Amino acid sequence: MEQMINFGIDLGTTNSAIAKYVNGKVQLFQNPTDPGTFTLPSVVAFQEDRTVAGKKAKEWLERDPQSVVGRFKRKMGTSEKYDIKSIGASKTPVELSAIILKELRTFLPQGEYPEAGVITIPASFDTIQSNATKEAASQAGFRQVLLLQEPIAASLAYANTKKEAGLSDGQWLVYDLGGGTFDVALIRVKESEMKVMDHEGDNFLGGTDFDNLIVEKLLIPAITERYKFRDLEQEMKSARGKYNAKYFVLLQQAEEAKIILSSKSSAVIAVDGLTDENNIPVDFEYTVTRTAFNELIAQHIDNTVRMVEQIITRNKLTAKDLQFVLMVGGSTFIPFVRQRVEEVLQVPVNCEVDPITAVAAGAAYYASGKANVLGESGAAAAGSPVAIKVTYPKVSREKEELFLAKVTGETTNLSYRITRNDGGFDTGVKKLSERISEYLPLVANAFNFFKLTIYDQENKIVETGTGVIGIDSGYGINGQPIPEDICLEIDDDDKPGETKLLQVFQKNNVLPSRKTITRVLNKTVSDTNGERIRINVLEGPHYALPEANKSLGYLEIAADKLTKKVLKGSDIELTFNISESRDLTVTAYLQMADQEFKQTFTPQERHTPVDVLKMDIDILAGKLENEIFETNNHEDYAVGKQLAELKKDMDNIKGEAKVLADDDVTDKRYQLEDRKRKLAQAIDLATKQNRMNDVRAEYFNIKAVCNENVANSGSEQDKQHFYDIIKDEEHFLAAPGPARTIEKSTALYVLNSSMLWRNPQFLVNTFKELVAAQRTANYDESLRTLEQNGLQAIEQRNWAKLTEVDHALIARTPREAGQDVIRKVGF
Predict the structure, then answer these.
(1) Mean pLDDT value across residues 655-678
(2) How many domains does the chain have?
(3) Rg, the chain, Cα only
(4) CB distance 76 to 604 below 8 Å
(5) pTM for this prediction
């Protein structure tokens, strides 16, 4: 079994490929059924007695279109099923993807059957889509799977073609427009290591959408102009539609025309196989010009450019700061795409890698540095007399690198030896001590593998569980970024009964990652009150409403799971672990019960019924109308203008949802769901600005008051504390959410309060306010005593005594009245 994974797979929307890292180079495997090509069309056809994938499946489309499925990657992570006419059964996107993965194995030489592999996914794939991809690999027989984001794979492919020349430090953009998805990533190179600094993407934007446009905007109108049809588009897109089978044939013809238009000025599509309502056969040729095609896709391409511009702006860059835009993905063959990107961004496009195979090649480079753990067992090392912890750089362009190891346990009579796998380096046998320090010489532009072996006094090998030492003298990646914030839903103390989000992992944090958060329980959980603790983890912006994000899973702790009552005010410790392939494990520890609850979240699909989607869209539209009404009442014209623009998007979404059939066979429902979710986030962000303005106004108010008190009566310690609170003002005031600003305001209130309570005049005024407020409510003997004690303290100028009286008066004040008084006096 190979020590490293070595195999990389690009599981694409329209085409897939497999590659292997062999002796310092990447080998792409040819399609055995289509000599000369290195890709497999991601299409599956079912016949009564067999299943075929790839080019032969596409050819079967003309004969039996309702038994052929393609473009299913767009529906990964959904509950969608494809009804297959020939077998009278349905298949999920996961099952179809597994068939493609199995077919890719047939590309390999006889005897090679990898069970470990690196599979690429769009950078914008969410956790559910990622889990679905891993499940497909599992169904295909892969027992070890690592996921790699496609822009990273493309960057590795590019960088490793430049090994000998070397890459200069700097940054570039990866523009990845494939068959079904779009990603853009900002890559920075520093000292031979690449890092993804930022990214954006759209899981529903790619060449497939261009095919749809040709069919919907050109072919269907052309048919209805020449022949008589009622609701032709609806009848094509509905699973029960009369012309549903023809829809998929037209899509394939549109794809073929699109490919032709990359090299020619026009393409001809033969439209036939239909009979109109007058029983007249449809039979004509339609010419698609490159100009007409460019006009169709211009809006989509401009949308991709806007995402690129967002990254440039967000990272405070200009065109001069970028070396180039690396073009990846089959749709970047379209001349208009390259032209438009370069024209708008004023950054040269780089087409030095094959847009079709670069991702598979990069995945293989990545796989060469990942250990194949299948068959490994810790049992051999369990009885070892020593444990070894090693440290070394995984990537280096130096001629040699320092290898360090810390050894614990009994080292007497033990020795060690380090060898390079190609036989070009051997330390010889040396006495083992608590530390190992060796310089390892590296072969340039190759992956260098070394082996550390421990021997006993009889020269027998001592198993320690130490894996392969691998150092890449090419270019590596400094981890993969988290594509979206990972958040925890918590109670909103400012709005009782409502919840908000607490950020656990930030977008672009490097995977893997771990974090522990301690929270205070705000309710008692016992078998008598039926309460439970619900831990809800979501994916999406931390400043958004919880309902605008995607739920990754729940961990519920009910009373019957507890060994004892857990009281309000006790602590719950939450630990979040997310792996490089986005496996998320949550551990909850309840200190009072001394119990731990653990769950790994692996959701693989989300269900999106059309009727529920329409209802959610209507609810969001109603909320938007209310927000517009409130904004107009407050005469907030800036926010009103934003909401008016969002209403246009809302109206478009409502209009498109209205005509969506319950059995629509396209991925339109998922596109609308994605647009609805993003619109909900935009509405929340726009209206949150009002609250942010209030929060900032409150901050500036308490800052001014506190500043005056610090100047008049503050100690040196107070002055330093005040400075520490406000010193990063520029950053927390610019944050998208109010949490940090509220935190700073609270700190200023506390500081101001501590100074006021040392101010005699404040103590006197507080005493008078509290007595006056309570006299009208309940002037009893205890109040009379407190009043006398307070007056006496004032007369004697005993400020410590007056402070005690003030606190006693506050303690007996009814809650609401007490709050009014405290607010009035500056708490």
Answers:
(1) 84
(2) 4
(3) 33
(4) no
(5) 0.75
